[in-house]
From TrEMBL:
It comes from Agaribacillus aureus. Residues 20-235, 444-608 form the MacB-like periplasmic core domain. Keywords: Cell membrane, Membrane, Transmembrane, Transmembrane helix. It is a multi-pass membrane protein. This is ABC transporter permease. PROSITE patterns: PROKAR_LIPOPROTEIN (PS51257).
Length: 804
């Protein structure tokens, strides 16, 4: 029986090469797209699942509120981790990470490289996390001061094929010798915790800091089996009262109770390790995370692309049912049961699905590498050999085959042989109601995706080109300035300014968008606390960045007292409720000297020093004469020669130190790199969805032209023109596309409007985008149909009518 099914199947497919090809190509594209998206979704959902104790690991976050400003951050204080171990029975172990946010220079022999992520970690790190050591003892690797653990791929940069274990490297501007006490396997891509090196926490001078209000590291807790995280979070309240309360009283002069009565709050919460990548977007994340919303979106796109491919199959099968009606009638007359016919048609569908799946699997393997480049992921083809993947692929193939073939199977097998053989079903076969509904649905999905893609592109372009309140273009930021003395830094700065290619230069300890230090200020004589971001700059920072000064003056060498002066942005002035900010005095809670007074000498215009997802928040600038960065504004002409000049000046004044730099505008672009990549992926799959829909439309257009061959011949004999015939064949599809467009408008608007809520600064959704999308959809439909329409209209009517 199966042999007969297959024989008839291959015979039928061979006799209908055009429609078979359309179905196979459509299903192949749909399945390949679905496979790529499934691999992407699996990769996103697999973050940190490789840790043996992942389900019991939680990150401690800080949730505070000061002067109506909400604080949600990954940062916590040094004493929290082991206080939790000692005082709460739910906690089995804890570890801390201090993410040294600045680059650090690493030296070994003649090799000197800036590393981005050199973190400090407690010796308990490997008790909590499941990273594997290739060399070294995980229990002792980070116990001693001045020890370091290095991933294998990083070690190869310094030691080549030699073993790094036991070697000594020099870290930082101070060239502190560190012994390599562990070599890690290469870090997996699916972790939120990537680092270049781990230094022992005891090497960090502040690792025993007991100040609870000093939040500067990341804390992870390992809970006992069966422990309740909710119960532990409730106990955090008493911990805050016990330890944070006295410090609020000491530093701010009010009790914790009064602090809360003023509308403020301060507390800790737990985040499951497995939720961090897709469900966390806190301040001071170790690296940009994913977003569960995008996982849902891509999952939906995969579903719709497969659905579109199945709709194509059903559309073409039902459309061509008239050509197989007599076959069904004859076979029923000869004794075939309806169940036999159903299985025959489903077999044809499953065979088509199998062929398409094999082609899709090959296409997925070929496209995986470029897909990784576009998406910024490291999805492995090794998944193809996993049992779950093979089962999922087989299930997908059968599901697509059965769904795509089910309606045609039951529809065709329901024909009554007497009616078919008398030709009474011919008119019914031309009934296009269900096909029209499916075509509308296809273009509804396609147009919705087109509108969303256009609006996503417009938002990403807006973030790239928006005026941030200062000029980020043509600013080169030289890194690694800390090894230079104050005199060396100023000499280098002057040497660069003397060059014709350089407009200005500024030394600072930070530059936007990497401002990550916040502290509490209070207007002198009041008890209103304001949380403000800060960084230190020299006299030329505003001029170099082209930040507009609105009131007062800039820092000046003519005022020695400017060491206790401060510049505020408009948002900070507004937060303090000041009408005249200049000459007001603020109390600063931070630094080594505790509470200090700073005089406001100037107010500068708000600028976006963070991501455009956030409103511009209060910012204060302190004066410094030495920093780790130098921002150099250049003319932008012949940039390679300018960079070569800067490197030459660097080597002249800082012999032996590597020249490291980045462009300021590229740092801002990096903030939205994840969205930009997702936008590209979204565009690609939108294009594939449209292609699948067009393949179905092409098949239907070919069928309609075939069915109306004699009608077209008669019209041409009676004087119809080719454009008139083309219009005749195209107008029905045009109506369907317009109807789908009307349905797609509100759905696309709601989807994109919800997405834009995540941006404090975003585009306004205007009618122009919808008009463009509608025109694009019509053009796509017309171009798809036109080939078959022109072919039918240009045919010689004698050929179609000679049998009459």
């Amino acid at each position: 029986m199966i042999k007969d099914y297959l024989k008839i199947t291959f015979r039928t497919l061979a006799n209908q090469k055009f429609y078979t090809g359309l179905n196979i190509v459509g299903l192949s594209i749909g399945i390949a797209s679905c496979l790529l998206i499934l691999l992407y979704v699996h990769h996103e959902l697999s973050y940190d699942t490789f840790h043996e104790k992942a389900e019991r690991v939680y990150r401690v976050g800080l949730n505070g509120k000061i002067a109506e400003q909400e604080i949600f951050t990954t940062s916590s204080c040094p004493p929290l981790a082991f206080t939790a171990v000692e005082e709460f029975p739910e906690v089995e172990n804890a570890t801390r990470i201090f993410p040294y946010w600045a680059q650090q220079i690493i030296r070994y022999g003649e090799t000197a490289i800036f590393e981005e992520k050199v973190y400090f970690a407690d010796s308990s790190f490997f008790d909590v996390f499941g990273f594997k050591l290739l060399e070294g003892n995980p229990a002792t690797a980070l116990v001693e001061p001045n020890t370091v653990v290095i991933p294998e791929d990083v070690a190869q940069k310094y030691f080549g094929e030699e073993s790094a274990f036991g070697k000594t490297i020099l870290i930082g501007a101070e060239k502190v010798p560190h012994k390599v006490t562990g070599v890690l396997d290469k870090l997996p891509p699916n972790t939120h915790l990537h680092f270049d090196m781990l230094r022992s926490m005891v090497s960090w001078p502040n690792h025993k800091d007991q100040v609870w209000l000093n939040n500067n590291l990341v804390t992870y807790l390992l809970l006992h089996e069966g422990a309740s995280p909710a119960s532990l979070e409730e106990k955090f309240v008493s911990m805050v009262i016990k330890y944070v309360g006295p410090e609020v009283q000491q530093f701010m002069g009010i009790s914790l109770e009064t602090f809360a009565q003023q509308g403020n709050k301060y507390g800790f919460f737990l985040q499951p390790l497995l939720d961090i990548h897709l469900h966390s977007d806190l301040k001071d994340e170790l690296e940009p995370n994913g977003d569960i919303t995008y996982v849902y979106i891509f999952g939906a796109i995969a579903f719709f692309i497969i659905l579109l491919a199945c709709i194509n199959f059903m559309n073409l099968a039902t459309a061509r049912s008239a050509n197989r009606a007599k076959e069904v009638g004859v076979r029923k007359t000869l004794g075939s049961l309806r169940s036999t016919l159903v299985w025959q048609f489903i077999t044809e569908s499953v065979v088509l699905s199998l062929i398409a799946t094999l082609l899709a699997l090959g296409a997925t393997a070929l496209l995986l590498s470029p897909f990784n480049d576009i998406s910024g992921k490291e999805i492995s083809a090794a998944l193809f050999g996993k049992p779950w993947f093979i089962m999922a692929l087989s299930g997908l193939m059968l599901t697509v085959g059965v769904i795509a073939g089910s309606y045609p199977a039951f529809y065709l097998s329901s024909f009554r042989p007497v009616e078919v053989l008398k030709g009474r079903l011919k008119a019914g076969m031309k009934s296009s109601g269900i096909r029209n509904v499916l075509v509308v649905f296809q273009f509804f999905i396609s147009i919705t995706l087109i509108i969303c893609t256009i609006l996503v592109y417009e938002q990403l372009e807006y973030t790239r080109t928006k005026n941030l309140g200062f000029e980020k273009e043509n600013v080169v930021v030289i890194e690694g300035m800390w090894p230079l003395s104050r005199g060396q830094q100023n000499t280098l700065k002057q040497a660069l300014i003397d060059q014709s290619q350089v407009i200005n230069a500024s030394i600072s300890n930070n530059v936007p968008p990497g401002v990550n230090n916040t502290t509490v200020f209070r207007k002198k004589g009041t008890e209103d606390d304001i949380l403000i971001s800060t960084y230190n700059v020299d006299y030329d920072h505003l001029a170099t960045m082209k930040i507009e000064l609105l009131d007062g003056r800039n820092f000046s060498r003519d005022f020695p007292t400017d060491t206790t002066a401060i510049l505020l942005n408009q948002a900070a002035v507004k937060a303090f409720g000041l009408t005249q900010a200049v000459n007001e005095t603020l109390e600063f809670f931070g630094g080594d000297n505790g509470r200090q007074d700073f005089k406001i000498v100037g107010v500068f215009k708000d600028f976006n020093y963070e991501t455009l997802k956030n409103e511009i928040s209060p910012l204060a600038l302190f004066l410094t004469r030495q920093g780790g960065l130098m921002s150099v504004r250049v003319r932008g002409e012949n940039m390679p020669a300018t960079l070569a000049m800067m490197e030459e000046a660097w080597k002249k004044h800082t012999p032996g130190e590597p020249f490291q730099y980045h462009f300021l505008d590229e740092s801002y672009d990096a903030l939205f790199r994840a969205e930009q990549r997702l936008g590209k992926v979204f565009s690609i799959f939108t294009g594939l969805a449209i292609l699948v829909a067009c393949l179905g439309l092409l098949g239907l257009a070919a069928f309609m032209a075939e069915q109306r061959t004699k009608e077209i011949g008669i019209r041409k004999v009676l004087g119809a023109s080719i454009p008139g015939v083309i219009l005749l064949l195209s107008k029905d599809f045009t109506k369907l596309v317009i109807f789908a467009f009307v349905l797609a408008i509100p759905v696309a608007y709601i989807i994109v409007d919800k997405w834009l809520e995540g941006f404090a600064f975003h585009i306004e959704i205007g009618p122009g985008t919808f008009v463009v999308a509608g025109i694009m959809a019509l053009l796509i439909a017309w171009l798809t149909v036109s080939w078959q329409s022109i072919k039918a209209a240009a045919a010689n009517p004698v050929r179609s009518l000679r049998s009459e």
